[in-house]
Design a protein that fits this description.
Number of domains: 1
Order of helices and strands: HHHH
Helix content: over 70%
Radius of gyration: 16 Å
Shape: elongated
Structural class: mainly alpha
Keywords: Membrane, Transmembrane, Transmembrane helix
Protein name: DUF5652 domain-containing protein
Largest sheet: none
Pfam family, one: DUF5652
Transmembrane segments: 36-58
Domain DUF5652: 7-66
Distance between the termini: 50 Å
Strand content: under 5%
Number of strands: 0
Number of helices: 4
């Protein structure tokens, strides 16, 4: 595995470029919506952004609609 990563460093950089924005947005959303357990889980568990994407589209989005549904913006 170590030799593979040394020979394919570009793959690691590409993976980091994919994960970082998803992780950042998911953590930001969880903190803003006060989802403490989601924040901890997203921070600790690395699923190559799969869990982050699930949180953003299926947990945070419905929670935002409930929280801000009555406000006109």
């Amino acid at each position: 595995m170590e030799v593979f990563l040394q020979n394919n460093l570009w793959l690691l950089a590409l993976l980091m470029a994919w994960v970082l924005p998803w992780k950042g947005y998911a953590l930001w959303s969880a903190a803003r919506l006060r989802h403490k357990w989601w924040f901890v889980i997203l921070l600790v568990v690395n699923t190559v952004a799969i869990l982050d994407i699930i949180y953003i589209f299926f947990v945070a989005r419905p929670a935002k609609k409930k929280s801000f549904g009555g406000m006109n913006s």
